[in-house]
């Protein structure tokens, strides 16, 4: 159970699950509410629970929905991945691309099926059966239609995250797959005409 309150641009997270308390040295990375931040002051005690403090930049407030949260709301908290660990989802950096809106929610066989609408300029990075991070949670995209997409939330994910509270009209933080963005950047080249092109792939036997 994770609750938070904010003072200016500093966030204090308390009542933290014991599994997320380890590795809490000052400056260490931690993802909360889908945004990657660094501890300002770990290990405190607030209202009987362990607390962590984070500084939140203007860029984070502009790109994410953290600024809409209020005292008492729950957020997802995740420790940083070690490169030696097993990767059970996809690469999530905690750098938010945009805010999407819950368009629909229904339950089916114990699962929750969500539909989301997101800004058109971000929709090209979401593909069917690809990956997307919603409020910091690595999920598989079921289907894509225009600037919208659907995902399936299994009971375990719903029980362990804030997705179980989401309803139509709610905003969520979206991080698209960083690999897709890198590929687009490389294929796009630069002002000097460099970068990976279809012609260069053909010439080097990749296509």
Describe the structure.
By secondary structure, this protein is α+β, with helices and mostly antiparallel strands. It folds into two domains: 3-79, Elongation Factor Tu (Ef-tu), domain 3; 98-183, Elongation Factor Tu (Ef-tu), domain 3, CATH 2.40.30. It is 16% helix and 38% strand. The protein has five helices and twelve strands. The chain has helices spanning 58-63, 120-123, 155-160, 178-188, 198-203, and strands at residues 3-7, 10-14, 29-32, 35-46, 49-55, 77-79, 98-108, 111-117, 131-134, 137-145, 148-153, 171-176. The chain has a six-stranded antiparallel beta sheet with strand order 1-2-5-4-3-6, with no helix packed on it. The chain has a six-stranded antiparallel beta barrel with strand order 7-8-11-10-9-12. Strand 4 (35-46) and strand 5 (49-55) form a beta hairpin. The longest helix has 11 residues, at 178-188. Residues 1-8 and 36-48 have low confidence and may be disordered.
User: What is the CA-CA span between the terminal residues?
Assistant: 50 Å
Query: Tell me about the biggest sheet?
Result: 6 strands, antiparallel
Mind telling me the CATH class of the largest domain? Mainly Beta
How many domains make up the 3D coordinates?
Answer: 2
The amount of helix comes to 10-25%
Oligomer: single chain
The rough form would be described as globular
Q: CATH topology of the largest domain, what is it called?
A: Elongation Factor Tu (Ef-tu), domain 3
Strands ordered across the widest β-sheet: 1-2-5-4-3-6
From the 3D coordinates, which CATH architecture of the largest domain would you assign? Beta Barrel
Low-confidence stretches: 1-8, 36-48
Report the order of strands and helices.
Answer: EEEEEHEEEHEEEHEHH
What portion of residues belong to β-strands? 35-45%
Instruction: Give the overall average pLDDT.
Output: 76
Number of helices: 5
The assigned structural class equals: alpha+beta
Number of E strands: 12
**What is the radius of gyration?**
19 Å
